Amino acid sequence: MIIIKGGALVCPEGLRRGDIALDGGKIARIAASIEPGADDTVEDAAGCWVFPGFIDAHTHLQCWTGMDWTADSFETGTRAAACGGTTTVVDYATADRGVTMDEALAEWRRRADGTCTANYGFHMAIAEWGEDSAAQMRRMREAGVSSFKTYLAYDHLRLTDAETLQCLECVRDLDAVLCVHCENGDIVNELQREVLATGVTGPEGHPLSRPAEAEADAVSRLLYLASIAGAKVNVVHLSTRLGLDAIRAARSRGQQGIFVETCPQYLTLDDTRYLEEGDDGFAGAKYVMSPPLRKPADIAALREAVLAGEVDSIATDHCSFNLHGQKDRGRDSFTRIPNGGPGIEHRPAVMATSFEGQLGPMELMHLMSEGPARVFGMWPAKGRLAEGADADICVWDPAARWTISAATQQQAVDYTPYEGVEAHGRARLVYVNGVLAARDGEPTGEKPGRYVERG
Hints:
The model has no long low-confidence stretch (mean pLDDT about 95). The protein has a single domain, classed as Metal-dependent hydrolases (TIM Barrel). It has twelve helices and 17 strands. Helix content is about 30%, strand content about 25%. Strand 1 and strand 2 form a beta hairpin. By secondary structure, it is α/β, with parallel strands linked by helices. Strands 1, 2, 3, 4, 5, 14, 15, 16 and 17 form a nine-stranded mixed β-sheet that branches. An eight-stranded parallel β-sheet has the order 6-7-8-9-10-11-12-13. The two termini are about 30 Å apart. Its cofactor is Zn(2+).
């Protein structure tokens, strides 16, 4: 057995001082004190918080996005995740037009199986709707996929409102969750044309073409459609106060089954980054992601919502592209800069640092472990410290001090949006299925990650 001794255990019922024993990929015992046997491995967790492994339920690894392949594969991305304290990711498999969901799931399994340091599950993104789509969704449910995704933007991915409604009705019948990218695609397309016509071609044009109103309109529309269908929805990567207002309005009407996800970048970085100098005036491309970074007022509103318990989970939307050789191909037009940014490795540290003194270990656990486990069908095996639960553990040292830098990260990308941040706290030990996967931010070389079938 592996015995982690003397830590502050972040349990569902609250913090407790004690020891935790791991055996056979499960938490075998939790007690005030566990006496080790001769063959047991003992790790000292004094001064540390012992979390259930963090879950990142929004990633895009080893993925073709229509412009390029992401810089991070499942191998590099899950290794980076584990080094930061994340033991499970839920990635977006995508059934592109002309591809069945069965084919997409098989392809994403092929990419991931046998390569992963962290555990991995899949949402199924649906890019077209046809007569057989509902049957395909039922087969996905049987294969352990309990969440789906649709888009209200991107011409090659989005469904019509009528198709979205049909999808929501199927989601309801399957007791699943629909994750939705909420931007008004028609408005984005028109504003991109108008911004380019004014002569603005650099990264600063990206936020101009995707205003807060485009997000709020789509959030509101989605929630009305979900109300008609009686389906559960997860608003992904919420970035604006206006979008938050639409969610609050639906909740005030008594609508149930609304889950909210936001990301560290929308809680810490604002749209002045698009004017960042360096790299021949193209450094702002590092922050070209959709939705874009927003105004300080949006950041303040979302942070207040996090503190008020209005947000169910913090994910990354990790979709990494190198600045050099990938993003810089869009120098002549911001519309040709691959959308996305890295974050899978640094989410726990950025959250713990940014909200130091505001969010304690219980709140961090709810947002980055228990919340996504409950929303996406992994509870109670994951997302909690309890006897019989999976042995996915992050021993977190809140006293650690270190500097986030691309030069030392595990992410296979040439920058981090958090370059130079002095982080407060670090994952000291990370166990995946009871196997030590990372120590002090460095991988052990083990690849214990398994496919997670979600209920």
